[in-house]
Amino acid sequence: MKNTQVKYKTRTKPAGLAPLLLIMLLSLAMVSLMGCRSAYLWQAVTGQAGLLRGSLSPDDPRLKAELTAADYDKLAFVAEVVAFAQHELGLARSENYQKVYPRDQGAVIYVLSAAPRDQLTSETWWFPVVGRMGYLGFFDKEMAVRYKKELDEAGLDTHLRTALAYSTLGWFNDPITRPMLRLSKPALANLIIHELTHVTLYVKDQTDFNEGLANFVGQAGAIRFFEARHEPESVVWLEQHAADETRFVAFLDQLTDRLKKLYNQTPRPVDLEMKKREIITAAQAEFRSQAHLYATPAFSQFGEQQINNAVILAYSRYHQSYPLFQRVFERQGNDFKKFLTFFVQAAKENNDLMQFTKEWASSHQGERP
Question: Which range marks the domain in which residue 65 is found?
Answer without folding.
Answer: 6-183
